[in-house]
Amino acid sequence: MSAFKNPFDPNLRLHRRGCACGRHHSQAEHDAEVRGEEAVIGRLVEATVVRAMFPKDETRRNFIRAVGAGTALAAISHFFPLSAAKALAAEGGGPIEKKDLKIGFIPITCATPIIMAEPMGFYAKQGLNVTLVKTAGWAVVRDKVINKEYDASHMLSPMPIAMSLGLGSRPVAIDVAAIENINGQAITLHLKHKDKLSPSSWKGMKFGIPFDYSIHNLLLRYFLAEHGLDPDKDVELRVLPPPDMVANLRAGNIDGFLGPEPFNQRAVFEGVGFIHTLSKEIWDGHPCCAFGVAEGFAKTYPNTFGALFRAIALATHYASNKANRSTIIQAIAPANYLNQPVPVLEQVMSGRFADGLGNVKNVPDRVDFDPFPWQSMAVWILTQLKRWGYVKGDLDYRQIAENVFLATDARKRMMELGLNPPKENYRKHTIMGKEFDPAKPEEYLRSFTLRRA
Amino acid sequence: MRSLAFRSGLLSLVILTAFLLVWHIATEADHKTSARVTDEYATLMGGSAQTSDIPGPMAVGRTLLSKLSSPFYDNGPNDKGIGIQLAYSLARVISGFVLAAIVAIPLGFVIGMSPVMQGALNPFVQVMKPISPLAWMPLALYTLKDSSLSAIFVIFICSIWPMLLNTAHGVASVKKEWLNVARTLEVKPLRTAWGVILPAAAPTIVTGMRISMGIAWLVIVAAEMLIGGTGIGYFVWNEWNNLSIVNVIVAIFLIGVVGLCLDIVFGALLKLVSYTE
After folding, report:
1. Residue B37: per-residue pLDDT
2. pLDDT band, residue B68 (cuts 50/70/90)
3. Is the dihedral of CA B7, B12, B13, B15 positive or negative?
4. Helix (H/G/I), strand (E/B), else coil: B228
5. Which of A312, A269, A379 is nearest to A37 (CA)?
6. Which chain B residue is nearest to residue A103, measuring alpha carbons?
7. For residues A388 and A102, what is the distance between their CA atoms, to the nearest angstrom?
């Protein structure tokens, strides 16, 4: 993040040294980034201008040392409108068209950036007045986004693809502005199955999933199939809201579930289940939830969309820093947001948790946050939707992925914020040791013996 | 008579005490300790034995008192006091109910006074009446495009049938002699409806309204659990999401009390309009 360093400070050390997250020069600079958003953007503009004038570090430093930072700034401002440029960058190019926004969320830790952005002021800093509405289920989220009751919403990452294709609803194009969280799910089993650690012995079991068009469903199917079980014939998959999963697990109605946090940890906390596999162990870095808007929102309200994206991207970036996690937990635990006990959230967010079998495990990246919407992830989701027969016929994988996952847009905006987005939209992923090449989706699909298409 | 009321009151009190006592003993005995493991593990588990059990009457009583001590706080859109939540639910129920009354009572008059209309509309009423109110919810969300309006619509559609049928029945069974008297006195039809039929049918109409209100209060909780947002149904869902059985029991108790109050209002109204021949 050298762009955030004060270009007018000749005594700045060029080598990295201690701040909480390790990416900044000092704690003060770290605080400046996370707290004073305007200061960061201002600094970015100054840095860009000064660096453009003196591309070589040595020349710039010598110049500033010679005349002093104040004089240098005054000299530059004389022929370059620094303050105007700063204001423009901070506002994202113009006035916000729509300040009052309604954003829907489901109370799970995946929604952390969307939620914390409200109590911690990320929305307010971008000039937005956001009302967060807790929503009772994914189908209701879908309907309220279609009805335009929500301006933007927390969604499961396959939902926008399914909605755009018209699966389970009439086709409504949805844009994925950012991915919320990566990892952060788990397979939880009832304590009575603690001897059945091998998935091949799971024949005849009943599993809960939160929604048909969820990464949970696709990951569980993938996991079972890799262990030789046919998810449609050998086990029963039931759509259940996460709190119902815990209750049904307790009652013995289901044998396990692949669900979002904090409900896996909650099942352990309640003494009814144990965590068998973290979703990170299936696909490290898999996308879970996304932040989407109905198509047209970004075009009708470009500055609002920009401000919203900045708030979410900065919140996601902030949440990815483990040093901030305890502050975040305090912000999102109350009844207004997640409404969950703090000890449960702490275990989820810190990755130091009780697994329900008497062990304390330490998995620091059990939950992580990364806003970049990889289009290759969308392609993978499509291959799996097709694999299990949710979509039929020929698919233009790239076209759909690029229409729904706005990676290029996200990159541009992340760069404006000084975040480090990846340079490309596609990459290879490794899922349970098997490589997925987004350039060859059909070949990948055909490589599975267990498939419906 | 006084001794009868006294005796049944006493019996109620005995039943209540016995129920609370059994509840208390049953939940008290359930506190089991989990197997001993490392200290850190025990902390991470947070004493799961207490949180997972059905709460006893003392815990519910304490939560009830704390909820009722600040019923109108407002911590933002997803955390409001129980009084505010009940007010939202009542507002939805009353608006749906009033809309239903505006449609059902005049329509019931028409059906009751004209056998032709009765024959024509009866098949529709018979088909619509048995549909579960919540089955309308997806359709309402899809067409009205507003979750709050959809909840009101669901209340409307479930309140309309008992009022309609009772009004029609009440109007149709007004004594022929009274109508004949009105006709001999050459009373105009509108005045007959207002001055003769309405008072005669009023007890039946109010009974229909009372049944409707009961159903509406039943349905609003389920509807709000579906759409979320505000209301006592949302409160139940939110606490269920938190797996907090204490708060769910508190909400169930309050739903019952409010339902009772609504019924008392209509009971009083019925006394007001009833007559002896």
Report:
1. 55
2. confident
3. positive
4. coil
5. A312
6. B77
7. 34
Which segment, A100-109, A422-431, B25-34, is predicted with the most confidence on average? A100-109
Question: Which ranges of A227-262 does DSSP label H, i.e. alpha helix?
Answer: 242-251
Q: Is the peptide bond before A262 cis (omega within 30 degrees of 0)?
A: yes
Q: Which residue of B has its CA nearest to A353?
A: B44
Q: Identify the closest residue of chain A to B36 by CA–CA distance.
A: A358
Q: Got the DSSP string for A97-133?
A: S--EEEEEE-SSGGGHHHHHTTTTTHHHHTT-EEEEE
> What is the DSSP annotation of A260-303?
ETTHHHHHHHTTSEEEEEEHHHHSTT-B-EEEEEETTHHHHSHH
Structure tokens at B8: 């049944």
Residue A288 is predicted with a pLDDT of 87
* Pairing verdict, β A206-209 and A236-239: parallel
Residue B144 C-alpha, separation from nearest chain A C-alpha, in angstroms: 9
Report CA-CA distances (Å) from A433 to A365, A366, A374, B110, B225: 18, 18, 20, 73, 42
Computed over every residue of chain A, the mean pLDDT equals: 79
Cα separation, A408 vs A421, in Å, equals 10
For residue B17, is pLDDT > 80? Answer: yes
Instruction: Report the DSSP pairing between strands A352-354 and A360-362.
Output: antiparallel
| pLDDT of the residue at A428 | 84
Residues of A within 8 A of B251 (CB-CB) are: none
Burial A66-85 (b: 16+ CB within 10 A, else e): eeeeeebbeebeeebebeeb
Which of A174 and B156 is assigned the larger pLDDT? B156
Q: Which two tokens stand for residue B199?
A: 């008072």
pTM of the model: 0.75
- For chain B, the residues whose C-beta falls within 8 A of a C-beta of chain A are 34-35, 37-38, 40-41, 43-46, 48-49, 51-52, 75-79, 138, 141-142, 145-147, 225-229, 234, 237-243
d(CA A118, CA A147): 23
pLDDT 10s digits, B101-129: 999 999 998 888 888 888 888 888 889 88
Which residue has 């149904």 as its token pair?
A: B233
